[in-house]
């Protein structure tokens, strides 16, 4: 066997195998590899986009939370202010009611005292008249008058 002929046949077989592989085997393999690379790149891009969306969503959530805290703080401050105002109004109303009650009680006490004084004056006048009648019925005697006045004082107590 001739070494040159073997070498030429091997070169021809190699070239035929290379042509067959280049035309029929490599295109589907490169196509599959390209599709897979594209899917991987798309997946990575989607992951990056999702990561960016997540960061943006977290920022929006933080902003909304800050706004909600601010609104809550404003509402709490307003409620505290309103509560203090209502408390002050209630205190002033209570003071007004107490003042009116004191005035009413003083008027009632004054009227009751005046009635008691009037009743006492009437009783004193009646007793004075009764005492005068007793004095006039008896004979005029200084000791007897002193005794009658003493009895009258005891009756007044």
TrEMBL record:
<dbReference type="GO" id="GO:0046961">
    <property type="term" value="F:proton-transporting ATPase activity, rotational mechanism"/>
</dbReference>
<keyword id="KW-0175">Coiled coil</keyword>
<keyword id="KW-0472">Membrane</keyword>
<comment type="function">
    <text>Component of the F(0) channel, it forms part of the peripheral stalk, linking F(1) to F(0). The b'-subunit is a diverged and duplicated form of b found in plants and photosynthetic bacteria.</text>
</comment>
<dbReference type="GO" id="GO:0045259">
    <property type="term" value="C:proton-transporting ATP synthase complex"/>
</dbReference>
<keyword id="KW-0813">Transport</keyword>
<dbReference type="GO" id="GO:0012505">
    <property type="term" value="C:endomembrane system"/>
</dbReference>
<dbReference type="InterPro" id="IPR002146">
    <property type="entry name" value="ATP_synth_b/b'su_bac/chlpt"/>
</dbReference>
<dbReference type="GO" id="GO:0005886">
    <property type="term" value="C:plasma membrane"/>
</dbReference>
<feature type="transmembrane region" description="Helical">
    <location>
        <begin position="6"/>
        <end position="26"/>
    </location>
</feature>
<keyword id="KW-0812">Transmembrane</keyword>
<keyword id="KW-1003">Cell membrane</keyword>
<dbReference type="InterPro" id="IPR005864">
    <property type="entry name" value="ATP_synth_F0_bsu_bac"/>
</dbReference>
<dbReference type="GO" id="GO:0046933">
    <property type="term" value="F:proton-transporting ATP synthase activity, rotational mechanism"/>
</dbReference>
<keyword id="KW-0066">ATP synthesis</keyword>
<comment type="similarity">
    <text>Belongs to the ATPase B chain family.</text>
</comment>
<feature type="coiled-coil region">
    <location>
        <begin position="47"/>
        <end position="122"/>
    </location>
</feature>
<keyword id="KW-0375">Hydrogen ion transport</keyword>
<keyword id="KW-1133">Transmembrane helix</keyword>
<comment type="subunit">
    <text>F-type ATPases have 2 components, F(1) - the catalytic core - and F(0) - the membrane proton channel. F(1) has five subunits: alpha(3), beta(3), gamma(1), delta(1), epsilon(1). F(0) has four main subunits: a(1), b(2) and c(10-14). The alpha and beta chains form an alternating ring which encloses part of the gamma chain. F(1) is attached to F(0) by a central stalk formed by the gamma and epsilon chains, while a peripheral stalk is formed by the delta and b chains.</text>
</comment>
<comment type="function">
    <text>F(1)F(0) ATP synthase produces ATP from ADP in the presence of a proton or sodium gradient. F-type ATPases consist of two structural domains, F(1) containing the extramembraneous catalytic core and F(0) containing the membrane proton channel, linked together by a central stalk and a peripheral stalk. During catalysis, ATP synthesis in the catalytic domain of F(1) is coupled via a rotary mechanism of the central stalk subunits to proton translocation.</text>
</comment>
<keyword id="KW-0406">Ion transport</keyword>
<comment type="subunit">
    <text>F-type ATPases have 2 components, F(1) - the catalytic core - and F(0) - the membrane proton channel. F(1) has five subunits: alpha(3), beta(3), gamma(1), delta(1), epsilon(1). F(0) has three main subunits: a(1), b(2) and c(10-14). The alpha and beta chains form an alternating ring which encloses part of the gamma chain. F(1) is attached to F(0) by a central stalk formed by the gamma and epsilon chains, while a peripheral stalk is formed by the delta and b chains.</text>
</comment>
<dbReference type="Pfam" id="PF00430">
    <property type="entry name" value="ATP-synt_B"/>
</dbReference>
<keyword id="KW-0138">CF(0)</keyword>
<dbReference type="InterPro" id="IPR050059">
    <property type="entry name" value="ATP_synthase_B_chain"/>
</dbReference>
<protein>
    <recommendedName>
        <fullName>ATP synthase subunit b</fullName>
    </recommendedName>
</protein>
């Amino acid at each position: 066997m001739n070494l040159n002929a073997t070498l030429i046949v091997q070169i021809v077989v190699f070239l035929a195998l290379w042509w067959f592989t280049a035309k029929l085997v490599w295109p589907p393999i490169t196509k599959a590899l390209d599709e897979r690379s594209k899917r991987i790149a798309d997946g990575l891009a989607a992951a990056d986009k999702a990561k960016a969306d997540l960061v943006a969503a977290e920022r929006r959530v933080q902003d909304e939370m800050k706004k909600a805290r601010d609104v809550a703080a404003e509402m709490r401050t307003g409620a505290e202010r309103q509560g203090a105002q209502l408390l002050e109004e209630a205190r002033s109303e209570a003071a007004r009611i107490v003042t009116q009650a004191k005035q009413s009680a003083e008027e009632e006490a004054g009227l009751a005292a005046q009635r008691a004084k009037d009743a006492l004056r009437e009783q004193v006048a009646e007793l004075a008249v009764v005492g005068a009648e007793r004095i006039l019925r008896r004979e005029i005697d200084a000791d007897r008058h002193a005794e009658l006045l003493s009895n009258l004082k005891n009756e007044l107590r």
